[in-house]
Amino acid sequence: MVQQAQPRPLLNRRLADLGTTIFAEMSELAVSTGSVNLGQGFPDTDGPEQIARAAADAILSGRGNQYPPGAGIGELRTAIAAHQRRFYDLDVDPGTEVLVTAGATEAIAAALLALVEPGDEVIAFEPYYDSYAACIAMAAGIRVPVTLRAPDFRPDLDELRAAVTDRTRLILLNSPHNPTGSVFTRAELTAIAELATASDLLVISDEVYEHMVFDGEHVPIASLPGMRERTVSISSAAKTFSFTGWKIGWITATPDLVTAVRTVKQFLTFVSGGPFQYAIAEALAMPRDYFSGVAGSLAARRDMMCDGLAAAGFEVYRPAGTYFITTDIRPFGESSGLDFCRKLPYQAGVVAIPSVVFYDNAEAGQTQVRFAFCKKVEVLAEALARLSALRPG
Ligand SMILES: Cc1ncc(COP(=O)(O)O)c(C=O)c1O
Predict the structure, then answer these.
(1) How far is the CA of 255 from the centre of ligand 1 (A)?
(2) How does residue 132 score in pLDDT terms, banded at 50, 70 and 90?
(3) Closest CA to 356 of 341, 369, 371
(4) What beta strand segments (E) does the chain contain?
(5) Which atom of ligand 1 lies at the shortest distance from residue 129's CA?
(6) Probe residue for ligand 1, chosen from 126, 178, 182 as the CB with the greatest number of ligand atoms within 8 Å
(7) Tens digit of each residue's pLDDT (9 = 90 or more) over 179-195
(8) For the CA of 206, the nearest atom of ligand 1
């Protein structure tokens, strides 16, 4: 008898173990239970009207409606370079050292696909943003997690040094850090830079929360000695300007690194968001008050949420940046963040994300739950009122 062959799984084997359906599951739960959704990190208020108008004007006046240049429109590349100079005193050549991408998400994917050969090791601090594991897998790299541990989520530099082998290609950094809200200090980044230089490693630095720092300062690792030539810095308009749907991101790096990443980007999306690029060029040139206002308004909501979550019984790990708060649910007598988040919409009418999905080392994140606070104050107040019905066990 002829044996029937097992059908081959459709999904590429390297991606098969990345069970990141939790966001969809939680969003569906939010809708079906009428919960306040503090799961996924997108704001419930659009960015500046003047910038939205600039995008509409660009469309109506025929700017960017056809394929824009592969590296991004000149106005935006110039604005990105000016932003790096204004905020960080970094000199970037808009002609050769900037690449506009379809959000930071494409920048991360294109950078990893460009720089990682199969079998190369990529060190990343976990918990990590979910696209990191997927993109390392797509590049056939091997992810090597170094765990940031509660309560402070500081990088353990000895652990980082021990993680470097002769197969390490790069360190994938994210500060301010999603989901913990940790902001790496200049001293920590200097130690990471020294290690990268000594071991001849590249660094991909995801800085999408660069303007959302409440305590401390944002230091781009590219500004540290020896790092300009080995760092791909990534940022995005999504968070800073509250236009997550526009998907305008960018990298800044040396011409060689930009060329490598651009080669991949060319075959992923080629170009994107022409009219939005004109609008973001204008956004990046807004006065400093705009940028400090973003941080100030979020800092007030951070304080409100930290106090409210603590009053509701959570152990709260106060973030220094981003718009996420990590909490621990052990005070409720709970031991699984996943179970807790699946019950929470029914028990309290609030949706959050179990942080365990951001870890390889599940043990470390088992009891952590992440709340996003990039929502209107009245929405956060409603969520806190609902959560106050929970009682620690
Ligand atoms: C750490 C981090 N990097 C990148 C992104 C994606 O940015 P974009 O929307 O520009 O693709 C996010 C979005 O949540 C993020 O949290």
Answers:
(1) 24
(2) very high
(3) 369
(4) 36-37, 98-102, 121-126, 142-147, 168-174, 202-206, 231-236, 248-252, 315-317, 324-328, 350-351, 353-354, 368-372
(5) 1
(6) 178
(7) 999 999 999 999 999 99
(8) 3
- pLDDT tens profile 46-85: 999 999 999 999 999 999 999 999 999 999 999 999 999 9
Cα(391) to ligand 1 centroid in Å equals: 34
Strands of the sheet containing 324-328, edge to edge, are: 315-317, 324-328, 368-372, 353-354
Q: What is the pTM of this model?
A: 0.96
State the distance from the centre of ligand 1 to the C-alpha of 310, rounded, in angstroms: 27
CA 249 to ligand 1 centroid distance, Å: 9
Residue nearest to atom 16 of ligand 1 (CA): 178
Amino acid 288 reads R
Within 8 A by CB and 6+ apart from 350, the residues are: 35, 36, 38, 344, 383, 386, 387
- Closest ligand 1 atom to Cα of 102: 11
Measure the CA–CA gap between 65 and 76, rounded to whole angstroms: 15
pLDDT at 5: 80
Beta-strand relationship, 121-126 and 142-147: parallel
Structure tokens at 105: 């998400």
Ligand 1 binding pocket, CB closer than 6 Å: 41, 103-105, 129, 174, 178, 206, 208, 236, 238, 244, 247, 249
Centre of ligand 1 to C-alpha 29, Å, is 23
Cβ partners under 8 Å of residue 44, min gap 6: 374, 375, 376, 379
Residues 6+ apart with CB under 8 A from 251: 98, 99, 101, 107, 110, 111, 232, 233, 234, 257, 258, 261
- Running DSSP on this structure, what letter comes out for residue 94? T
Give the model's pLDDT for residue 1: 63
8: CA distance to ligand 1 center in Å? 33
